[in-house]
User: Which sequence fits this backbone?
């Protein structure tokens, strides 16, 4: 989000806009409602507007209002069902209903003074979607699967070792069982002699 602030500042500086106050950050969850505030800075009727800059550094007008008792006029692409601009003389509000990830961005209100736009308030809105916690959950799941896989590999290696040992033992036993009686006698005599010499 630091890039957005930098790009926005550069954009506003190049347009000759200046800020009267610092921006604040609001974190909201997807589907919630958020109301942005802007101090009413003019005692005489003036055109007050809300704007938004998104991550793509696209500056868009949301709505404008000339007099407190008149309804706001919405800019292209912004409908009154989602956005609501109002004032109580001292404060200008922008309500965003059921925010989603596309509503993230830097919102600011302003007016014109001597044909120069002036930014009065700026608020950085960060919408936390359902998928925001997904990387943490995925990391935990992958970690658990790695541990399970590691334990399974160790168990399989031990089982293979036991099976090899059992096969070798069975082969020795089978070899002894297959010998004829005379071969067994010779082997037992040989084993007996070996034991006596030891």
Assistant:
């Amino acid at each position: 989000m630091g890039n957005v602030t930098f790009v926005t500042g550069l954009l506003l500086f190049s347009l000759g806009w200046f800020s009267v106050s610092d921006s604040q950050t609001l974190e909201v969850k997807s589907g919630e409602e958020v109301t942005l505030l802007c101090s009413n800075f003019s005692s005489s009727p003036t055109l007050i507007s809300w704007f938004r800059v998104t991550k793509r550094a696209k500056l868009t007008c949301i709505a404008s209002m000339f007099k407190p008792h008149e309804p706001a006029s919405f800019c292209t692409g912004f409908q009154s069902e989602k956005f609501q601009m109002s004032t109580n003389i001292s404060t200008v509000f922008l309500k965003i209903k059921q925010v989603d990830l596309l509503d993230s961005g830097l919102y600011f209100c302003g007016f014109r003074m001597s044909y120069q736009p002036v930014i009065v308030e700026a608020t950085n809105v960060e919408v936390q979607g359902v998928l925001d916690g997904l990387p943490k959950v995925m990391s935990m799941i992958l970690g658990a699967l790695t541990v399970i896989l590691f334990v399974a590999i160790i168990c399989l290696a031990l089982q293979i070792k036991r099976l090899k040992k059992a096969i070798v033992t069975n082969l020795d036993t089978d070899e002894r069982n297959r010998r004829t009686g005379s071969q067994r006698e010779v082997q037992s005599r040989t084993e007996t002699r070996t034991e006596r010499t030891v």
